[in-house]
Amino acid sequence: MPAPRGTALVTGASSGIGEATARLLAAAGTHVLLHGRDRERLAALAAQTGGTALEADLADPEAAGKLAERALAVTGRVDTLVNNAGLGWAGPLTELSPELLARLVAVNLTAPLELTRALLPGMLARGHGRIVFVTSIAGRTGVAGEAVYAATKSGLDAFADSLRFELHGTGVDVGVVVPGVVRTAFFERRGRPYTRTTPRPVSAQRVAAAVVRATHRPGDYYVPRWLRVPVALRGAVPGAYRALAMRFGAES
Ligand SMILES: NC(=O)c1ccc[n+]([C@@H]2O[C@H](COP(=O)([O-])OP(=O)(O)OC[C@H]3O[C@@H](n4cnc5c(N)ncnc54)[C@H](OP(=O)(O)O)[C@@H]3O)[C@@H](O)[C@H]2O)c1
Fold this sequence. Notes:
- The chain has helices at residues 16-27, 39-49, 63-75, 98-126, 138-141, 147-166, 186-190, 204-216, 228-236, 238-248, and strands at 7-10, 31-36, 52-55, 80-83, 129-134, 172-179, 220-223.
- The protein is α/β, with parallel strands linked by helices.
- The chain has a 7-stranded parallel beta sheet, with helices on both faces.
- Helix 4 (98-126) links the parallel strand 4 (80-83) and strand 5.
- The two termini are 34 Å apart.
């Protein structure tokens, strides 16, 4: 299946899943607008993909709106928006500082909402657009020690679902990619490395392939696919799910 051509803005393209997604989209002929904070990594990726680097710290409340403006200034349109940038934090809630709590909510939740709001009018006017959200299994099942992170991802999920209904018939489609554990810098950066043996981490490329699929055929994509089983179990028999999760470990 070919990737969409046109222009795609990928947030968090300087690392991990976003970088892999940007490479796949560029390889298929899409002009990629590469967002991140790491100037050197963005410049190197821009040189390799023919894309355009756009630096912005999404923790800044005005950054998402300005990023949308700068993205539109490059080619006049954004056909595909991949809301991927995000950060984690793991530990007891009482040890999370108010500053970091606000940062998690700003980057993981407020920024993608605002970016979507700002880029949607152009998509609606053209009668075509693709918006993909990279959420997390944490947002669908809950994870001990990651309550705020899980809440931001759950919020993103609810936003995506609601938007899907709102945009039905407009030509603008919404996709959601729900990764489990992915081999990226995410865990080191959140301050607690991933040490469990199961579930086994998947590659960023595998998640990126799901993101590209979500741009063609909107829907929910779990990576790996078996993750839909605990989510279904939680929905059908929440008490039994929780008992099992407590027993086998509800941390990552
Ligand atoms: N890795 C996993 O196991 C996993 C599982 C489920 C969901 N996810 C989600 O997947 C997405 C990508 O994560 P990843 O695994 O690829 O991690 P990563 O390698 O750490 O990449 C995170 C990306 O987000 C950007 N970012 C972080 N804070 C930012 C800020 N304040 N302003 C702007 N950009 C910021 C980073 O930019 P800079 O590097 O330039 O700062 C980087 O490009 C995240 O939303 C994460 O929650 C990851």
